[in-house]
Amino acid sequence: MESSSSLKNRSEGDLYPVDLPVLHYSELNTGCEEYLSSVKSDGAMPFTLPHGEKVQVTRKNIGRLPFLREDMSRFILALHTPEDETQVVAVYLQGKWWPIGDVLKTSDKCRHGLVLVESVMERVVLFLLSQVIFGILERPLKDDLYFSTYSLWEHGKILWHNGEAVGFYTIKKRGSLCDGYTGQSYQLPVLDTVFVRSHWRRTGLALQMLEDFCLSQPTEGILGISFPMSTGMYGVCKKYLETHEEERDRLYEVEAPGEWTQRRNVWLNIQLQKLPQDCQRSACGDAEQSPHTFSHETRKPDLEEEGTLQQCGSLVNPKYLSASVKKRPADQIDTKTNCKKAMT
């Protein structure tokens, strides 16, 4: 696993936003007000999407996406289609519009695997993955919870594969504040959120992130996973603990701040079948079985199949989101991204 500060030797060709040298968060808003003024005075201008469709750029279909939890004055301009304010197709960075898909790409061949989020633009990628890609596009239909925006000090890693950001995970470090109200701090490192984009699920990437989390904390005797664990997360933990017996006494499902009375051993829960109801009733072939009784010939439910791998810690109630948010049509998945409207 590499730190972004060690990434060098960029490949030839066009650079994407994450490859550009943005040194401070204030640079994200540089020139935005002037640009909005020019749009208002000059009228509509077309923006061409990668598949050839043109979207008219007007003040009516430009919104602001709050970017940092600590500073709501920091925002990213987002472009949505005139007919649907939930269809975000591009964001304004470095003085130009970028299609959502391009912001999640890199031309740096050294940016591969799990990379620590350090730079400003890497936090933009993390923001888009959690708020736009998962927040609307790939959130399970039955799921009414969302990731909240991350703190500037949130510790996270982005999973890069073939030049594209395909997932991420974040953790709460020991000693970090649980929230901004109680003054309580976490008593142990906690795996807080995990996500793999739909196209790359069922390829072992979630298992890779869980293993990376465990290996990155070699001196910690106990590790946490935020309560409540999802069905998919239990499936991944089961796979991991079946082959890593030494970790069975180390992984706990925990509620903040993680006192002993707030911890439940994950492996013990699996053995006692203390799992989410849908996990216990997961279908496999023509039979319904508990995920920890499947034979090797049957398909086990895993984290990648669930969409949201782990969505326990950083969540926001849907009542704070626009009522107009909805799923994007399947035939538009490669061209547009849904998001709540950010008012200008």
Structural notes for this entry:
The chain is an alpha+beta fold. The chain folds into 2 domains: 6-112 and 321-344, no CATH class; 151-313, Aminopeptidase. The protein is built from 7 helices and 20 strands. The strands form 5 sheets. Strands 1, 8, 10, 11, 12, 13, 14, 15 and 18 form a 9-stranded mixed beta sheet that branches. The radius of gyration is 21 Å and the shape is elongated. Mean pLDDT is 77; it is low at 2-12, 280-308 and 311-344.
Q: Which terms summarize this structure?
A:
disordered N terminus, disordered C terminus, Aminopeptidase, 26% strand, 344 residues, five-stranded antiparallel β-sheet, 20 strands, single chain, elongated, 2 domains, alpha+beta
Quick summary:
The chain is of the alpha+beta class and 344 residues long. It has seven helices and 20 strands.
Write the layout of secondary structure elements.
Elements: E1 2-3, H1 32-42, E2 45-48, E3 54-57, E4 62-66, E5 75-81, E6 84-93, E7 96-99, H2 100-103, E8 113-116, H3 120-137, E9 146-147, E10 155-161, E11 164-172, E12 190-196, H4 205-215, E13 223-226, H5 231-243, E14 251-254, E15 263-265, H6 266-271, H7 277-280, E16 283-284, E17 287-288, E18 308-311, E19 315-316, E20 337-338
Parallel strand pairs: 1-8, 12-13, 13-14
Antiparallel strand pairs: 2-3, 4-5, 5-6, 6-7, 6-20, 8-10, 9-19, 10-11, 11-12, 12-18, 14-15, 16-17
Helix pairs in contact: 4-5
